[in-house]
Design a protein that fits this description.
The protein is of the alpha+beta class. The protein is built from 6 helices and 24 strands. The radius of gyration is 27 Å and the shape is globular.
Length: 459
Amino acid sequence: MPYQDQYDEEIVLTLSDWYHDQMPGLLKGFISYANPTGAEPVPDSALMNDTQDLSINVESGKTYMFRIINTGAFAGQYLWFEGHTMQVVEVDGVYTEPTEAEMLYITAAQRYSVFVTTKNTTSSNFPILASMDLDLFDTVPETLNPNVTGWLVYDEKASLPTPAFVDEFEPFDDFTLVPWDKEPLMENVDYSFNLDMRMDNLGDVRSLFLSLRNAFFNNATYVRPKVPTLYTALTASSLASNPAVYGSNTNAFVLEKNQVVEIVLNNDDPGKHPFHLHGHAFQAVVRSNESAGFYVNNETFPEIPMKRDTIMVRPNGNLVLRFRADNPGIWLFHCHIEWHIASGLVATMIEAPLELQFALALPASAGSASSPGPSPAALTIPESHIQACIAQGMPYRGNAAGNEVDFFNLDGENKSPDPLPAGFEAKGIVALVFSTLAAVLGMIVVAWYGNFDTGTKGA
C-alpha cells in the first residue's frame, strides 16, 4: 500500500439507508401491477455506522484514514467533516494521487479512503455530516429527515455541537482523480458495444393492472436463466463463446481474453444510476453532463483516466468505460440501486469462457465440464453448490433453458413478459386503470339505482 506509513489509525465509516420494513415485502410492492410508474420505496432514515449518534474519539495532531463505504440499497449520500479537509487517496480499491476534497458524493456501493488530519487544539468537537440525495426519490415524505450526524470527539466533556447549515451541496468531482499507478488511456479498442438503458413497462394492457415497471439494456430486461450462467459456460464446450446459449434475457456479451473492451452507456432516463462492474476496475473515459443525451464520440479523452469499479451516470447522460479482459469469469455489470437490479438493469460479461473451462472444474458428481476439460491444477466448484441447485430443482448443465442436447434450443427458458403495445406509457396506464375503475363504479351505481324501490306508483 503506497500510504502505509502516512497515517496513525484506520477507521471504517459506513453510510446506509435504513428501511423499517423488510425487503421481501418492499420488493413485492415495488414490482407490482399497482406500481406502474416504478416509484422506488423511500428509506425511512440515514445511518452512519448503523446508528444516528456516532461518536469517534480522536486525538489532536494525528492523521486518520477513514475507509468510507456506502452500504445502502438506494440512496447516494453527501459526506463532509465540518472544520476539516479530506484528502482522497483511494476509490473502490484503486489508490490515487492525494487530492483534497471538502465534500464527497458517494453512491450506493462506492468506497473512498480519505486522510483527515486533526487539529492541534482539543477544546471543541466537530460534526460529521451525511445527507441522502433527495433527487433520487420520486416523492419525499414530510416526515423524512435525510440527514445523519456523527462527531469527531476531541474532548468527551465538551458539548456535541449542532451542525452548521449548508446552502447547497458542492461535492468533489471524482472524475478528476489520478490513479497511483498512472496507467495511460487504453487505446486500440478491440470490442466496443453500447448499453442503451431505459425504464419502461411490460405486461398485458387488456387486463386490469397487468403492467410491471422494468429496466432495460438494449430493449431487454434481465431475467435469471434456469441454469446459472457460470455452469452454462462450463458445460457448453466450444459453444460457450456464442452469446446465444446464455438466453434471451441475460444481456450476454462474450469477451475474448485480453481484449480491450469499451462500454458506451447511454442513460435514456431522467434519474441518476450508479453502475458497478464485477471482476474489474475500469477506466472512466467519458462522463457527460446531465441531459447530454446519447454519446456521439465528441469528447477529448484524458491521458490518464480515473479508475474505479462503480460510477454514476448523470440523468439523460452517458458514460464511456474501458477495461482489459484479463480475468476469465462471469461478471455482472449492473445498476447498484437494489430496486433497479430487481427490475432487470443487468448485463452479463462472459469473459474468456474457453480459458475459464480450462481453469475451473465442476465436482465429480456433476459430470465432466466440457471438452477438452479443465487442467489438473484447476479450481473445483464446491460440491455444496451443486447440492444447492439440486435442492431447488435448478439444472446445473446445459444452456439457459437447461437443454444439454441442442444448446441453441431455448424452449422453456425464463423470459420477461411481452412489451406493451406502442404508445402505452406509465401515465397512460394509470389513467386507463382509474378510468376503468370509474366506469365500473358508475355501472354499479346505475344498476343499484335501477333496482331501488322509490315507493312511488304509476298513474
